[in-house]
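Why do we care about 3D structure at all? Because function follows from shape, and shape follows, mostly, from sequence. That is the central idea of this module. The next example makes it concrete: a single protein chain, its amino acid sequence, and then its structure expressed as tokens.
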Amino acid sequence: MNYDHFFTDAIDALRKERRYRTFAQIERDASHFPRAVWHSPGGPRDIVVWCSNDYLGMGSHPDVVNAMCETARARGAGAGGTRNISGNSHEIVMLERELADLHGKEAGLVFTSGYISNATGISTIVKLIPDCVVISDELNHNSMIEGVRQGGRQKFIFRHNDLEHLEEILKTIGDRPKLIAFESVYSMDGDIAPIKEICDLAERYGAMTYLDEVHAVGMYGARGGGVAERDGVMDRVDVIEGTLGKAFGVIGGYITGKRAMIDAVRSYAPGFIFTTALPPAISAAATASVRHLKASQSEREGQRAQVTKTKAALAAAGLPQMDTPTHIIPVMVGDAKACKMASDLLLAEYGIYIQPINYPTVPRGTERLRITPTPFHDDALIAHLVQALSDVWERLELPYADRMAKESKSRRVALGPAPIPVPVAGG
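And the structure:
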């Protein structure tokens, strides 16, 4: 039997739906972030990256790079295996202490990625709680959805940031053990969860809380502890999860919480036990980044200033950005083909890299370009970005902000209210 056609058919289906993903081959320039070299079909070209999750440029910070290089020379390139087999490196132990301190928790546990920390953390926690019910925000990241699925417990989905719907579900569940899983900053729409109010409900109805701060750690709070730190509610959240691969500029994920819970996950989680540990050099670099952002405000202040300027410039040009209270700026296109064309034009003709965001990352009809300004996107780069976007909008005859708002309103009226999600047993 020839199996190739199964795979070619699957790829063809993605192409027909305009969902086939292409990856630009890019070399970051650590000395000139956010500039990079794109290996285009016509050869290398200088570009500016406008969609990186290295939100503060910490991946290029001298302290972080030096910590990685010095530790690699002293300890070698790899970890040597799993932590069970090769032992805990001193560097990873120090990193976990820094992360626990960052969030005001008793302990922390580091994983190889933020995806794994969510998928493994959530699934292990709920498996360890008999008869546990998971209540998950409808816009939670795929890693959280996968964690809930792998946990195999009954689940409920509450409408995004809808406190009334969440409380209805909590009342329905009654006295059974419950875990509320939600994010602080939602990466595609750039909005923020009402953490305090969710904690109020959790305490009232006896639920645990699991908060994903992936897009907030390093960015918000006096020491970069996230939105929960900024809002003064870190102590009310049972489990805080984060990443080392975005604002901290390295790689890895983690959870923090009470010592008993962390120890139980460490002891039972397959995604932790059977995976090679982060190398000492990576751990040392992440520790250097966390320590720096605990003390330094300049990166956060610089980033907020450039985000404000970018939003103002986009608004002045009439470009259809989604109004967000965060550093994430979605510029709405509303069509998969047009979104890809806009991204391709920006890269090929203007030297600007912004990847298209299409289904299934976002719902069909809400395709967008996701812009994430850093402290290093100066005023000249902002002006160039807005001019390039305006040119592309004209060339592709894309809708401007006023028309997009009218179409969005018409769509909501036509569709009517969103259906109320129902509970699903077993993930």
